[in-house]
Description:
This protein has 15 helices and 9 strands. By secondary structure, it is mainly alpha-helical. It is globular, with a radius of gyration of 21 Å.
Amino acid sequence: MSKLIGDYGLPRKVLFCKKCVISxxxxxxxxxFKSKREEKKNSINFDKDQVCxxxxxxxxxxxxxxxxxxxxxxNLLDKHRKKSGYDxxxxxxxxxxxxxxxxxxxxxxxxxxxxxxxxxxxxxxxGWKNFFNWSHVGGLDNMLYTPNxxxxxxxxxxxxxxxxxxxxxxxxxxxxxxxLMAQKFGISLIMxxxxxxxxxxxxxxxxxxxxxxxxxxxKSINEIKFGGLSIKEIMKSFKYKAKDFTPYLPLSxxxxxxxxxxxxxxxxxxxxxxxxxxxxxxxxxxxxPNETRTEGSYSKYSSIDDKIDTFHYYTTLIKFGIGRTTYDxxxxxxxxxxxxxxxxxxVHKYDQEFPSKYFSEFxxxxxxxxxEFWQIINKFRSKHLWEFNKSSKKWKLKHQVQ
Length: 402
């Protein structure tokens, strides 16, 4: 492996953005599905002034003609508007983003959306209340899809043990449920909220309003992997049947084209601000934040529907040195909600906090003992990011934002 490249294809030299708090260890979305020994560099881009691509795109957004973009949105919606039935699919859980997206499409733009939900692993109490309010306060139709719990737990366990990514099966299901339901109901438009690329992928990935078909289409059970194993390998080793994986099998690209399915980002047409989505959802769909902050962060309203969510962010801390506070603070700095100085302080205070609240439930869900959990965690720590202090017998990050 190159001396310049560390674990997971990340730069060995750690740098922090001069405008926000993100480091150059923030990976591309694909890295989380790959092994620790990754030869190719896969991380956020920094310019010569040590400013990340996410901050640079924030400046670009300020120059966009949003009135023009809204007209493009109206034209798109008119193209897919029907005389009867549903006009658009909105995947989500009833959180602030999907609530905003679905409600504004219905009330401001006159669309008839069908919201579809790939069930969380373990609903939190507030997550279930918000999901209920999405329909009963927000007035949105919803289909909740819950995959085989035994299989989903197994896949989640494999993903944690082999990739240290317990959210992988959920991410796959969440990504493909929209096109699957679109085909089932004869709907050609799917609308997500923001394009995740704006948080650190190549700036060019934000130029298109549509999601690339490769993100939710595949060809065979040899190509779809969970925990580094193909479906075919899992079937052979654990005696599952092909039909058991029905909800995890995406449409092929040919089927997507045949059904004229388009997947768009509302954030391309309307300036996306997570905090404003929260205010809107609270006012219009009954969305409620948690009474206490989320472990690992100072936030009370982002990604609060799943008890396993905090462990997803804890694993990013272990692999990339980036915890939940870093992600939250970075986007709030870019949206002028907090200063960089405040963000740095918050990262120091909360980023490495262990999510203990649902720890026992998480261990039970993935069938792992506490000792096994820490063995797996330590195996996946990036060597260029962590060091073990023999005197205190604790792990410490070598670099922190200043």
